[in-house]
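FORM 7B: Structural annotation worksheet

SECTION A. Query
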Amino acid sequence: MVILQKRVTGLQEDALDRFVTRAKRAVRLDRFVTRAKRAVRLRGSVTVLVTSSRELRRLNQRFRGKDNPTDVLSFPAPPLSVGRFAGDVAISAEIAKENARRLGHSAADEIKVLALHGVLHLAGYDHEHDAGEMARKERRLRKQLGLPTALIERNDCGPRPANLRKLSVRAKRKAPRPARGPAR
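SECTION B. Predicted structure
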């Protein structure tokens, strides 16, 4: 399910919902696993909220103890809901628009890059502790899904122009993901 509290030029709820469905499949949140000798379909439903920087700041403060807005937060579902609900992703429309402007692509594409990043976190990937596994997966999926530069890739690609340094500073300030709290 997609909720657009803040409108983004060129982005419709149904189009983002279709993209998130494709991203979930690509990340394998929608798959069969064997449990107790029987195949069980993991539904892995995801809710994506596109909202204001003010709301992301409030969520970041509440769940991560950081009093600043951020571009994307992921909230994995509690362990008991496995098989029904993967979690929530919250995205700042304002920061996505600014990132898109700086990086030279559309705000709608930036929202999709951030949604993919969030879905990867919901699938258990953690770029802060995985020796580049999430970055490689995100880079491959970005190409597969027709997206511009991936979030991790643009934060870890070496020297950057001054106007992009702000993006990497924000990335370096990320804290490890708590067991049930949000991931960035």
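SECTION C. Observations
The domain at 2-172 is CATH 3.40.390.30 (Collagenase (Catalytic Domain)). The radius of gyration is 16 Å.

SECTION D. Sign-off
Analyst initials: ____
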